[in-house]
Amino acid sequence: MISLQQALEQIGATQLTVLDFSSTTWQLFEKNNAKLFAKIQQVKPETDVHHHLLGVLTKAHIEVLSQIEADKDSVRAMNSTFKQELGESHAAKFQYQDGQLLLLITHIWIYLQGYLAMDFSLANDHAENSATMLVGIQGGNAEQLRSEFMASFYLARGQKTQFTNPILCWLKKIFQ
User: Fold this and answer.
1) Distance (Å, rounded) from C-alpha 7 to C-alpha 13?
2) How crowded is residue 39: how many other Cβ atoms within 10 Å of its Cβ?
3) What is the DSSP letter of 47?
4) What is the pTM of this model?
């Protein structure tokens, strides 16, 4: 049995430069999901750990999207008040925790979908939904954010090849 952190390291997700795995957002995510990940591995040890990881990330994504949807009017009002009272530059210093969590989860989730060679259009739809939600509450460019999520998808496709391509492994052994 491996930890949530180890599972992400195994697939190369911890090298995503857009994420900070030492942040409080990551620590919160890991704290809230590590026990579930461990329990799933115990209940179904014959299932690939990456599929367990996909299930945990899917659940976490649904939960944070649901939370943001429920709070979006309040968050928009809060952001508007900050901008009016503090100005644009000071208001930008405040970070919406659930928004940061959605950003983290979506990058990892989309990355894993790429790693597992899942359908591009499904990953793209998920990336678009997350980007639209985040931009709706925090502002920004939804297309740019969707593209950043999909960059994680393509990075994972390259990582999977790098880690599991038998020809590359064979060549690596020869030249070491």
Assistant:
1) 9
2) 11
3) S
4) 0.84
